[in-house]
Design brief:
heterodimer; A: alpha+beta; four-stranded antiparallel beta sheet; elongated; B: about 325 residues; alpha/beta
Chain lengths: ~775, ~325
C-alpha cells in the first residue's frame, strides 16, 4: 500500500527523483564530498607527517653525536693510605665504584671511589733486604704491573677484581695474580742493581718484561706462551734479549703489543726506537726528538692497542706519534701525527681510555684535559686542583676519573659524560690520519674483534660509492630508456607499443634481490671471462643498428613499403641477435689475437685494477632496474605531447625527425627530466643489487672496474650487528639521514627544474 | 616391496659406515647424553654464520630427545649475538670469537653479571684459493701482506700479484682478488686480530655477507683468495697450508694440527648464554649445553666438518659450567 502512496506524489512523466529523495541524494553527496575531502586531505597530510617523523626519528637517533662533553668535579676526599707512601699508580675497577691506590712500600689499597673509605689492603711480596725501586705497567685494560726491587729482580703482578654474587648483590674483591709466579725474576745477562724504568706488556705471543737503568743499559725477557686447545695446558718458554745500551739515563720504557719494538725515552726527550723482532739481535732503528728543542718529555703513554704514543712535554704540549713503515727501508719510523691543545704547565701524567682512543692528561698547574685522538679533539679542559696533578685514572667505562695531587693524599673525582667522542665534522667528512697509515685518508672500516681497533668512520667513501653506483647505472639506463621512450611513443606502431610498454614496465616488478643475485653469481664471472664483449659490444651494437637503418633507407621503395609504418623496429631484432651472437663467440678469438689470450690479465699488465664484482656489473644490473622507471614516465610524457603541435609541425613541412627534436622533446622535457630524476633517486637508494653485486669495497675512486660500497648497502650490512646506542649505531643513522637528505635535495632540485621547464614550454 | 628391500639393503650399510667413521674421529671417552624429563618450550639463537649449520644440526639432535622444544636459529654474524643477548631476544649467542670487553660491559650494564661463554667446537679458519691455483701454502705474514693495508705482521712488501707471493709462470703476473667476510662476522674480527696482527684490511676487499658467499666467490674467480671456517670447504676451493712465521714449516688444516697448535688459525667456537650466577641455568639451556658437550653433540661437530672437542676439554668446560 505504501508503495502506491509514494508513487502518487511523483510528478507524472518527470525523470527527476521526488524532492524528498533529492534531498537525501544531496545529503549523501555532501557527505561523500566531505568524506573524500577529509580522507584525501588526511592521507596527504599523513604522508607528509610520516616523512617528517622519519626525519625526526633519524635526527633523534643522531642527535647524541652532537651532544657536548660534560666534565665536572664530583667528589673530593683524602686517602688515608696515600699519605703514608708515595703514590705509584691509581686505577678504577670496571664498575668505577672501587679505586685502587699503589704505594711505593708495596701496598695496594682499594677504596670506595665515591667516599675514599678504605676497603681492602693487599701487600706485594718484597724480597728480604730489598725495597721497591721502580714500577711499570701495561696498558690499562690488562691491569698488569711490574715491580722492580733494589736487588735487581722484578715481579710482574696482575690485579683482578673478582665478582661474586651473594643474594643477587654483586661483591667485588680485589686479588693479586702472578702471571710468572710469586718468585721475582732476574732479567738479562747484566742483572742491574735496580732499574730506573720498567715496562711489562702482554702482547702477541707472550709476556714481555723490560727494564732500563740510569746508565742506559736495557734488559728484557720474553715469556712466550702456547696453549694446547684440548688439554688447556700452557707451555712457557723464556727468551732473554741482549739489547745494546743507549748510553743515556732511561726515563721511560715502552713496548708495543706486537712485541716488535721497544721504545726508550731518555732525560732529554729523545726516543730510541729498537727493533726486537730477532730476539738475539735487537738493534737501534732511529733516535728521534719527540718535542721541540730544549723541551723534555715529562709523560708518555700508549693509547689502547699500543699503536700510537701520546707524548706530553715540559712546555705543556701534547702530541701524538705513531709508527709508520718506511717503504724504502722497510723499517718503522716514529711519525708525528697531530698535536692537541697545550696546557699551561708541564704535563705530569697521561691516562689513556681502556677501550677507545681517548686519553686524559694533567699538568703542573692542576689542569686536567680530555682528548680524543682520532677526531683530533680536545673535548674538555678544566682546572681541578691548585697543586700539580700527580696521577690520573680514567675508569673503564669512561664516566669517572680519579685525580691525585701531591703527597697530601687528596683525590678529586671527575664525572665525565662522553659517549661519542669519535665523531666530529672533520672525522666524518675529512681526511683522517689513522694509526699505522702513512698519510691521512678517507676510510670506512667500522669494527673488529678487538676493542683496540681504531674505528674508521669516514662517510666519504660511502657517499662517493653511492654516487658512483648511481652514476654508472644512469649512464647505461638513461640513453636506452629515453630513446626507447621517444621511439615507443612517437614512432612505434600502436599494436607493438601495446605489447612493448607493459613488458618493459613488467621489468620493474622483478625483485631487485634476484637481479643482484644474477649479477653477482652469473653476470660478474661471465663478464670477467669474456671481457672483449664490453669493447666489441659497445662498438658493434650502435654501428650495426645505424648501418642497418642506413641500409634500409637505401632499399628500393617497393621493398620498404612492404613493411607497415611503425614496424621497422622489428627488422632490427635479427640484427641485434646476430651482433650479440657474434660479440660473444668472437670474444675468445679477440683475446687470443689482441690480448695474449686473456684480456683480464692484460688489464693487470697495463695496471688497471680489475675486480670481478665491479661498478660495471652494478651499473648493468641497476641500470636494468632503473630503465622501466625512466621509460614508463618518459614515454607517458612524450605520448601526451598534444597532437595539434606535432601535426602542426608536420603540416608546416618539418620532417618527423625535426618534429621530434624541435617540438616533441622540448614539450616533453619536464616529464623526461622528472623521469630521469626519479630514476636517479631510485638508483641512489637501491640496496640489494649493490649489496650482492658490488663486493662492498669502501674505496674512494670512480674506476669502472672496481667495486664500491653505498650508504644503503652499508646500512643493510652493518646495522644488525651494532650495539644499540653505540657510536657506530648512531653513525649508521647519520648515514641514513645523509641518504635521505641526498634524495631530498635531488628531488627538490628536480622539481624546481621541472617547474621552470614546464613554464617555459607551456606557451607551445 | 622389492624396491623398499633394495633401499634398505643399500642404505643401511652406508649409514653404518658413516656412523663408524664418525665414531672413530670423536673421542670415545665422551659421555653419551642421557635424556632428562620435563624439558619443553622455545629456544632461540642469534649469532655466528660460521656456527649456523652446526647450531641447526644441534637443534635437530636436541629435538630428537625433546620433541616439545622448538628452536629458532638466525645466523647473520657473530656481532649480532651480543646485542640479541643483551636485549633478551635470544637464549644463545653462538660466536666465532670471544666477546669483546665492550660487549661484555654492555651485558653487565643490563644484567649486573657477565655472560657465560662455552667453547663448543674447534674451527680452523682456512685461507682458501681457487682449486686451480697451484700455490703450496703461505705464511701468516704473507697472508697479512695480501689482505692488509698496514702489514702489521711485518712482511717486507705489499703483495698484489701471485708472483709476489712466490709463484712463477702464468701466475707470476696475475693480480689477487680478495674475498672477505663483512664486519659483522667474528671470522672477520678473528682474522683481523690473528692473521693481520690487528692491522687493517685493504679497502679493496670484496666483503661478502656470508661464509658460503666467500667460498662461492673464490670458486668463481681464478686469481682469488678468501677466508672462512673449515666447515664451508667445497670441491671448488683449496684450503692452504699455513705457517705462523715466514720460512717455517707450513701445516695443513687438519684436526691434529689444530689440537697441537701447529696450524696457526685454529680457534674455539663459542656459544654465549645468559646464566644468572646465583639462580643457575634455565633447565632447557643447561640440557642443550650438556647435549652439545656430550658424545652425540660432538659427533655432530665432526659431521659438519669441524674438529670435535676431546673428553678432556669437554669435561673441563662442563665442570666450569656446573652441568656435569
Amino acid at each position: 500500500m505504501s508503495v502506491s502512496s509514494a508513487s502518487s506524489v511523483r510528478t507524472p512523466g518527470s525523470l527527476l527523483p521526488d524532492p524528498a529523495r533529492r534531498e537525501k541524494l544531496r545529503k549523501r553527496r555532501t557527505l561523500r564530498d566531505g568524506a573524500s575531502l577529509w580522507g584525501v586531505g588526511t592521507a596527504g597530510i599523513g604522508v607528509i607527517i610520516a616523512l617528517g617523523l622519519i626525519f625526526a626519528y633519524l635526527f633523534y637517533e643522531t642527535l647524541p653525536l652532537l651532544k657536548p662533553v660534560s666534565t665536572e668535579v664530583e667528589f673530593d676526599y683524602t686517602l688515608a693510605d696515600a699519605q703514608v707512601g708515595e703514590t705509584l699508580h691509581i686505577l678504577l675497577d670496571r664498575f668505577e665504584e672501587v679505586g685502587a691506590h699503589f704505594s711505593d712500600d708495596g701496598r695496594i689499597t682499594t677504596f670506595n671511589a665515591a667516599t675514599g673509605s678504605t676497603r681492602e689492603r693487599l701487600q706485594i711480596p718484597v724480597p728480604a733486604d730489598a725495597q721497591i725501586t721502580s714500577f711499570g705497567r701495561a696498558e690499562p685494560r690488562r691491569n698488569l704491573f711490574v715491580y722492580g726491587y733494589s736487588d735487581g729482580s722484578v715481579l710482574p703482578i696482575g690485579l683482578d677484581f673478582a665478582q661474586s654474587f651473594v643474594d643477587g648483590q654483586r661483591q667485588v674483591r680485589a686479588q693479586l695474580t702472578f702471571p710468572l709466579g710469586e718468585v721475582p725474576i732476574t732479567m738479562g745477562a747484566q742483572a742491574a742493581a735496580g732499574y730506573s724504568a720498567l715496562a711489562v706488556v702482554e702482547g702477541r705471543g707472550g709476556l714481555l718484561v723490560a727494564g732500563g737503568t740510569e746508565d742506559g743499559r736495557i734488559a728484557a725477557a720474553l715469556f712466550a706462551t702456547r696453549t694446547n686447545m684440548m688439554t688447556g695446558t700452557v707451555e712457557v718458554r723464556r727468551n732473554d734479549f741482549s739489547i745494546p745500551s743507549i748510553g743515556r739515563p732511561v726515563r721511560q720504557l715502552l713496548a708495543n703489543e706486537s712485541l716488535r719494538n721497544l721504545m726508550v725515552i731518555d732525560d732529554r726527550g729523545y726516543l730510541f726506537l729498537l727493533d726486537t723482532v730477532d730476539r738475539n739481535n735487537p738493534f737501534l732503528i732511529e733516535e728521534k726528538h719527540l718535542t721541540e728543542s730544549g723541551v723534555t718529555v715529562t709523560a708518555a703513554e700508549f693509547l689502547v692497542g699500543s699503536r700510537s704514543l701520546i707524548v706530553g712535554g715540559s712546555d705543556g704540549s701534547v702530541r701524538q706519534w705513531i709508527l709508520v713503515r718506511d717503504e724504502a727501508t722497510d723499517q718503522p719510523r716514529m711519525t708525528f701525527v697531530r698535536s692537541f691543545r697545550s696546557y699551561p704547565g708541564a704535563i705530569r701524567f697521561i691516562s689513556p681510555e681502556y677501550l677507545r682512543k681517548g686519553f686524559l692528561a694533567g699538568d703542573d698547574t692542576g689542569t686536567v684535559g680530555l682528548h680524543y685522538a682520532t677526531a683530533s679533539a680536545t673535548l674538555a679542559m678544566l682546572p681541578v686542583t691548585n697543586g700539580p696533578v700527580e696521577r690520573l685514572a680514567i675508569g673503564p667505562n669512561n664516566s669517572r676519573a680519579l685525580v691525585t695531587t701531591g703527597a697530601s693524599g687528596r683525590v678529586h673525582t671527575l664525572a665525565i659524560d662522553n659517549p661519542h667522542p669519535q665523531t666530529s665534522l672533520s672525522a666524518l667528512w675529512g681526511k683522517v690520519w689513522y694509526e699505522g697509515r702513512a698519510e691521512p685518508q678517507y676510510i670506512w672500516q667500522s669494527s673488529s674483534g678487538d676493542d683496540a681497533f681504531e674505528a674508521k668512520l669516514s662517510l666519504v667513501p660511502l657517499s662517493l660509492g653511492t654516487l658512483k653506483a648511481a652514476l654508472f647505472a644512469m649512464l647505461l639506463a638513461m640513453p636506452l630508456a629515453i630513446m626507447g621512450a621517444v621511439y615507443a611513443a612517437y614512432f612505434m606502431a600502436p599494436s607493438i607499443r601495446r605489447v612493448v610498454k607493459p613488458s618493459i614496465e613488467l621489468m620493474e616488478a622483478l625483485p631487485t634481490v634476484i637481479l643482484g643475485f644474477l649479477a653477482g653469481i652469473w653476470l660478474a664471472p661471465f663478464v670477467e671471462n669474456n671481457l672483449p664483449i664490453l669493447v666489441t659490444g659497445a662498438v658493434l651494437f650502435p654501428t650495426a643498428i645505424l648501418l642497418a637503418g642506413f641500409g634500409w633507407s637505401r632499399l628500393p621503395a617497393s621493398i620498404r613499403t612492404q613493411v607497415p609504418d611503425g614496424w621497422e623496429a622489428a627488422l632490427l631484432v635479427p640484427v641485434v641477435l646476430l651482433v650479440g651472437w657474434f660479440v660473444v663467440t668472437s670474444s675468445p678469438w679477440i683475446e687470443v689475437l689482441l690480448f695474449d689470450g686473456s684480456m683480464r690479465q692484460w688489464f693487470t699488465d697495463v695496471g688497471i685494477p680489475y675486480d670481478q664484482r665491479n661498478a660495471l656489473i652494478v651499473g648493468m644490473a641497476m641500470g636494468f632496474a632503473v630503465i622501466p622507471t625512466i621509460f614508463s614516465i618518459a614515454e607517458d610524457a612524450v605520448f601526451n605531447v598534444p597532437r595539434h603541435l606535432t601535426m602542426g609541425s608536420l603540416a608546416l613541412g618539418a620532417s618527423r625527425w625535426q618534429t621530434v627534436t624541435g617540438v616533441v622533446l622540448l614539450t616533453a622535457s619536464p616529464g623526461i627530466f622528472s623521469a630521469v630524476m626519479i630514476g636517479f633517486g631510485r638508483a641512489v637508494g637501491e640496496t640489494m643489487i649493490v649489496l650482492m653485486a658490488s663486493g662492498n669495497s669502501p674505496i674512494v675512486n670512480f674506476n669502472l672496474f672496481e667495486g664500491m660500497r653505498t650508504l644503503a648497502a652499508n646500512i643493510a650490512v652493518e646495522l644488525p650487528e651494532t650495539a644499540v646506542g653505540g657510536t657506530h649505531f648512531r653513525v649508521l643513522f647519520l648515514s641514513a639521514l645523509v641518504l635521505l637528505v641526498f634524495t631530498f635535495i635531488l628531488n627538490t632540485a628536480a622539481e624546481v627544474v621541472r617547474q621552470r621547464l614546464r613554464k617555459r614550454y607551456a606557451s607551445l | 616391496m622389492i624396491f623398499r628391500k633394495l633401499l634398505a639393503l643399500g642404505v643401511v650399510p652406508v649409514l653404518g659406515f658413516a656412523a663408524t667413521a664418525a665414531l672413530a674421529e670423536v673421542d670415545p671417552e665422551l659421555p653419551s647424553y642421557q635424556r632428562v624429563s620435563g624439558i619443553s618450550g622455545n629456544l632461540s639463537s642469534v649469532g655466528s654464520d660460521t656456527l649456523n649449520n652446526l647450531m641447526t644440526l644441534w637443534a635437530e639432535e636436541f629435538a630428537k630427545y625433546y620433541p616439545n622444544v622448538n628452536i629458532q636459529i638466525q645466523g647473520a654474524g657473530t656481532s649480532t649475538a651480543p646485542p640479541a643477548l643483551i636485549e633478551g631476544t635470544s637464549n644463545f649467542g653462538p660466536m666465532s670469537r670471544t666477546m669483546r670487553d665492550s660487549e661484555v660491559r654492555g651485558f653487565e650494564e643490563r644484567y649486573g653479571y657477565p655472560p657465560t661463554g662455552v667453547p663448543v667446537a674447534v674451527d680452523m679458519l682456512a685461507v682458501y684459493v681457487n682449486k686451480d691455483n697451484p700455490i703450496k701454502g703461505l705464511s701468516l705474514p704473507q697472508v697479512d701482506a695480501i689482505f692488509s693495508a698496514t702489514r702489521a705482521c711485518g712482511f717486507g712488501q705489499d703483495i698484489r700479484t701471485w708472483g709476489q707471493a712466490g709463484m712463477t709462470g702464468a701466475w707470476a703476473t696475475r693480480d689477487i682478488t680478495l674475498y672477505s667476510r663483512n664486519a659483522v662476522s667474528g671470522t672477520y674480527g678473528y682474522f683481523k686480530e690473528n692473521a693481520l696482527c690487528g692491522g687493517d684490511f685493504k679497502s679493496t676487499i670484496n666483503e661478502q655477507p656470508g661464509s658460503s658467499a666467500v667460498v662461492r666467490g673464490v670458486e668463481q674467480t681464478l686469481n682469488s683468495i678468501g677466508y672462512s671456517g673449515i666447515g664451508y670447504r667445497t670441491s671448488g676451493v683449496r684450503a692452504l697450508p699455513l705457517s705462523a712465521r715466514h720460512g717455517e714449516e707450513m701445516f695443513e688444516a687438519t684436526a691434529d694440527n689444530a689440537a697441537t697448535g701447529d696450524y696457526p688459525l685454529a680457534r674455539f667456537l663459542y656459544i654465549y648464554a645468559n646464566a644468572h650466577p646465583n639462580n643457575g641455568w634455565n633447565p632447557m639451556e643447561r640440557e642443550f649445553f650438556r647435549m652439545v658437550l656430550s658424545r652425540e653433540g660432538q659427533e655432530v661437530v665432526f659431521k659438519d666438518g669441524y674438529v670435535p672437542l676431546t673428553e678432556g676439554a669437554a669435561a673441563r668446560f662442563r665442570s666450569q659450567l656446573n652441568i656435569d
